[in-house]
Amino acid sequence: MFSASLDHGAEERSPTPVATRGRRRQRPLSSDNSVQQPKAKRQRLPLNEQTFVNSPEPRPETYEVKSARPSMTDLRQDGIEETPAPKQELSFRSKKARTGDRFSKGDGSTLLSTNTAFDVRKLPALPDRLKLDATSRQHGSADSLTGYALNLTHTHATVWPYAMPTQSPESFTFTLPYPSKHSTDPLPLGALVSPSASSSEPGLVVVMPTSGKVTYWESISSATTLDFMRQQRNGVEETIPGMFSGESAIQIANAESAAGFILAFSSGRMAYLSVRDAHGRPKISVLFLRTSLGPASSGFFGSIRHALSHTALQGDIAAVRAERSQKQGECTVVAATAKGRLHSWRVHRGGHHDLLTEMDARSAILEALQQVDQVNAKLPGDSLNVIDFCFVPKGLDQKWLDMSQLRDIPASEHYQHLLLLVSLSNKRTCRYSLVDVVLHNGTSSESPIEIGLVRPIHAFATTPDSHALSKPRLYLPRPTLIAFLIFDHAAVVASIARPPLSPDSQILEDNHILPASFEDVVDLRETPTLEIVGSGIEEPFTSGYGADEVRVSRIKTKNPAAVLLVRGAGTLRIAVTDIERFASEKPPKVTAKGKLEQAVFFGIKEDNPLVFDIQHGLRFTKEEYGAAALELSQEILTSAGPHLSALAVRVDTNIKERVRYLEKIMTHIKSLKVKLDRVTKWKLLWNAEKMHVASVVWRKHEELTSLRTVTSKKSIVAEMVEYIRNEERTEPNLAKGEVDELRHWFLRDIDRMEIFIAWAYEVIKHNVKANLDEASSTRLIYEASEIYNNALRDAFEFREQNLNLYGLNGERLEHGIIANDYAGLPPPWTCHPFIANNVMRLVELSTEWIKQHWTTEAESHNPLIQTIREVLPELTEVYLTVIQELSRSYLASDDPSRVSDAQKYEEIYKKARHDKVVLLAESENWEAAIKIAENHESLPALAEILTREIDALRDQLVSPDLSPEEVEMLDSKACAKEDQVRECFGKYGKDFAFPFYEYLFTKFGVDALLEYAGDKKFKTMYLRTKPELAKVSWINDIIGEEDIDHAADTLLDLGLAREQQVWNKKIELSLGKLARMAESSRPSSKASMSIQEASINGTTEDARVDAIDRELAIITIQNEFYNTQIRPVIQVALDESEELGLVQETFALKHPKKYKILSQIFEDAMRRLLQHEALDPLTLIDLLTLVTLPPETKELVPDQFFLAIQVAYNGLAGAERVQAERLIWRRCYLREDWTRLNNTSLKNDNDIMDVLGQTDLFQVYCTLYANQQSGTDKNEYRRLSPSEAAGVYTETLDRRFEKMEKGYREKVLEAMRWEDSILLKHIEKHRLNEWAKETRKFAEDAVDQQYDETTAAGAGAAALGSPTPAAASASASTRRLSRGAAALEAAAAAVATNGQQNGTL
What we know:
five-stranded antiparallel beta sheet, alpha+beta, eleven-stranded mixed beta sheet
């Protein structure tokens, strides 16, 4: 660090030089050394080696005066190598300040850290020599009384005014006359000496520890003249007499009131050092004190072996301190050993001294520590170590005494009031404590020691470094409310003020537990360079004891402070901001937020020597850290904290700085290994997103402003700020000059970014309402699109890029939003409903604007319109992402209203990801639309866009004005898109194929669907999964797949289950039956099956054919009824609207008005029959049993009730068929007036027989018996008696009525009960059961008689039961098509052609 003088020989040692920046004007170069007047009052030259070039050769005792600037010579002396210093510079003398005000002005310091209790500042003043050497061993001290700091190395001593507001202060460097021989030797001891009567500057004394050489300079500026130095040569150097071999000085303490210093030695001995004689002239003298700490043999020259063994038992001397006495010229000196032994002397000027007391306080201190602190109670007692102590200041006002926890005792010469820094430790931790001790003189009290306050240190537990350049120090500045503990890499600020009274504090005090008080640590970075090598304190002047003898301090301060000399950094000052606050009702506290603020605002500075990520004992919960981080993050967004500027000359720079602060929050929390909860981490990330977006928006604002004309510089960003409602922003304070609303918003309201972003569309809406011209509207739309797109897109990208920083790397994102897990999270700001709504509106407005103002002709393009068109796809994707995030977030909410809204938003998203993407095709953003559709998995939109693009390309190809090259290009593009469609088939499968065919069929019809040759597999799958396209599917099965078997299944399934039109159903069932028969008759089909498979398939086939036959039988009955009964009636109708009325008039039964529901059932069935619907069995039964047939057409069909029974047997099964049969028979019985028939009075047998023969019951029995006798119908139809028919559908109805309204069902049940009541009446009162039996017997006899007569006449087969013409026709068709599959294919093709011509199949 320093450059020492060259050693020219042992005998010709150079005189002791004093390097200074020259406090005297330059002397002449003559031998008489007369004084020469300066040439310039403001300028002087530093002294150098040529100053006394004409002087006689100096003797060894003379000084060599050097410049304050070190030379460039590299020096190696006694193994100590110094770093070369820079070249010399001229120094200029400024006006000399008066002693009282030199340091009272602004200190020009740099703030390194601050909290609610104190500030840490770096003072600017530091000698250049110290700046250049930050690695050598050194130590020092700071003296606030003189205003100077001292730095000592092995070879040099440097003194400078540490509080000067200049970076290169006027400093004084002394080359030590007897430097250390080895770099491992103890560093020299030194101290500043109070100024003499003839000087305003302090002196300097330096003691070489091992050699005992003492050098004294009466004034640090006294060596500026050679004559003066020669005069002072005698008596300013001395050697300590009587030092033992191997003994060294270890400490020096200022005993100013006794006009000297106290030296402590490694042997345990202590000595008084005086640097002035009785007349105040420089003279060095040393006198050892009487003490038991040193060797006890033969005076001062006892055995060193005994000394070392003696001190080993008592411990090394930990500290020596001196206190001013009430009497002038004397002081009290106390020494403490590491083992806890205390010694006290009263020392007089000249070295005379009296031993006051010596005692072992170890047991008393240990007992107090273990009684008060549970942690200390668990640590081994033999580890007790006294580290340092200080005197408690006396003579304080009662105000301060009441505020302090220290003992309030009157000032007296009979005791010493001390504050000790002690520790107990084990291998893992070190527990420091402050102990208030009153040490009584030997004859003043029975108890030589009293223990008062025991104040454990919770915030710091690092074991002291035995190799540190300076020992730990304890300072207790006036007014004794704060203690400073200085270690090698840390300083502890601990309050010993009395805490505010409260019930809790009283309970703690009663239990010997100290209530928590302020305690904080200032840490240095862990680098090889940085280390605290010296310290001192600054304290406010307070009236009191000995005040008239206290010299006025040159450092003026209102609150106590500690000054740290930090190697590699400079001079640091830890200054309390308000000392009285520590004893107030609300004393300062160390909070998680305060520590976080320090780390964020000061830890971000790379040149800050302090570090903030060491927790020590000050630990907070993760909840406290989380709350602090969120609060601080909010303050950064709003520039609300004291560390944030309220004015930004460059907004972009201000935002970048705040972005760094937000990043520092997370890096610091991660360095502390604090595990924040998921919600807090997401909130912090969202705040950081807002700040990042603010930076993006500001840059975009400046870009948009630069594109505007001079007369219109207000971009949409500025207008958005103006339009935001007052309650949604912070109002500028015009009284404070806050007139720029835009910049004010970016300083104060970034936390409301979601409101700000949403207002972009609102600005357009308000301006359009104000009839803004088209060009200006276009520009606003363009700027709004840029803002929305850049802000939100960059927010999503920022989120993805910073997941790891915020500890969210385990989260899964899609398009920048959380994929699924929103549980417990508030809605993200990017999906605020205002943003979602207004982005959607802007997308729609932009689409419409492009539609109105954009064309494909390049020469007519407006650049802004073109940009809007280019930005529209990105804006659309942003909207889809926002609405998707909103729906996901709300869906995870505990609020039922939000969950309901989430379902609405989800539907909006599903619809928008198709509709909004497809709209991009209108502006020919084909590729972008395709990409968005794939990103958001909107495969229907993808299919439609590709299809529309291919269609558009094909349309362009038919233009007659195209060149061959253009034709080739368009055809190539169309082919490429078709290839892309095929790739999508392979990539997405049916999820793409089905929407593709859906759009193809809907847009271009059946022809395009059947003729599309790009795919076969998915087209067949699509058709087969679409029941409504079954008619197309079976054609594709035959023509495309050649799968006759599946075509048959399709037709049969359609005809049996879904077809509504009776004619279509008949054709489909017939063709399906024929196809099934044709497929089963193919030899290849039979050959591929085993015998067992053939048997199973045959059984299954028989069942399917039987089901088809039954359905065809029902259709035949419906057609026969329609053709024979209905068609003749409706032929006279003018139009279809009259048909139902005619039919109702002709065929409807008359029912009581109360039971008109039966008429409604009949009317509904008849309407469906007129519309040629295929009636279900139960409806057809209702129709047949409720109809009244005219006599002229009644004979054209078999009995209507017999037909109903056939329908029941062919279309129903199980209990449902039984119930239907009962209904049929009940209605058949009710067709006659059994009251009249039962009355046979005055009637002969023939008359009765004639009446029975005309009844419907007689006709049913005849038909059933004749059908049975003919053998053509294998069904065995039951004959139900009236009693068996009674009770049907009086409690429950058939399946048709299950889903109908309850009122309708009740009406039907009421009608059923009415029918049943009439039947029961006839059974009970008119012998209906007997009449039914007689009628059946009469009918069967009549049929037998008819058969006999026919047989006798040889007429042949009876006509009853013969096939109907329709059945015969179907049978003939079956015979024709059974020849093979070829005939079926021809029939299918013919049907398809006929369907296409008529628009239906």
